[in-house]
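Thread title: Can someone regenerate the structure for this chain?

I was given the following input by a collaborator and told the matching structure tokens would be attached. They weren't. Posting the sequence so someone can regenerate them.
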Amino acid sequence: MSPPDIFSPDFARDPYPHYRLMRDEFPLYFHEGSGAYVLSRYEDVDGALRNPVFTTRSYARQIEPLLGRTIVQLDGKEHAAQRNLIAPSFQAVNIRRKFLGLIEETARTLIDGFRERGEVELIGEFVADFPVGILAGVLGLPPAEKGRFRTWYTSLLRFALNLTGDPEVTRAGFEARDQLDAYLRPLIRERRTNPGNDLLSMLAGVEVEGMALSDDEIWRFGMLMIFAGGETTEKTLATCFRNLVSHPEQLATVRADPGRIDRAIAESIRFTAPTHMVPRRTAAEVTVSGGTIPAESEVLCFLGSANRDERHYERADVFDIDRKEVDPARAFTGAANHLAFGAGRHFCLGATLSKFEVQAAIRQLLQAMEDIRYADGVAPPDTGLFLRGPKAMHLRFTPQGS
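Best answer:
Regenerated them for you:
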């Protein structure tokens, strides 16, 4: 028996049987194709995300050539200082006050395009545009610039997922970076003297113990949000809605009690995590349940596997919004009982913003659509290697009130 090849087509089609094999038989192994050690059990992945021996220096190759050193690559006091300055802007009270209206209006406008039609391809007509429109608004870009912003966003996202090293994708990524640089830096300077209700203004005005963010730090974080924030929200929303449509009884309970939307989202990001893997690099030799990892080793931490670990969850392969392990009050915080947003010092700063977005989207979609079913009767599968979600979702429904 051999450990799974994470680059194989069979693994990409359905990684979950391979995850079980990894957890049961190969909790630690070296994957030749990636040149990295693989972790798959909840205990090991959670430990790697929290133990400072596992550093984020792996991101130097992926992000640094494009954005320089962002908060993702920082550790220790440098990371703590910058996180303390950025985190207040992402507190629930600030998101609700500053951005909830933008989120609700973005969802409503997109749904208006199909609410009376009785059918929709949900990914192309709603999910793909929803977080992009919100990100543009959060950063304070005027509506007229949203078309350019989508081009920049798409180029940066393709750069992030360019596992084959396509030179044209690389060139387009750097071009988008340069154009966004030219656009955002004057905007940041303007927000310092003329603040608005956007994230750049919030970051430009924050001060903690006499420290403030530089223009470079604000620019890098804004770019990082575009680089990493939109796609994860897309996958979270798409998989959550698909999971509900695939479980009509649970969809009915959520429709009857919208207060249960948070439970549905929390269980969905456990059951089908939007991000399946994050990299780390060891600063010293470290022992995990499957053996020892040498110092200066690349490590792939499989969140998607950890979130299905039967050692940590009962009936781990079952989607159940009523499972006892689901705690919606903690699901979008560093105390979450899942690893969809990471854990420890690098827990995703944008988790709460993502929660507000997905909440609003699901609530408004259910208000607009009754009797939701797949157009061909088949649930769309997830695709992708490290970021997974359905490429398309053709739905038929009865318009609300018809």
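The mean pLDDT is 90.
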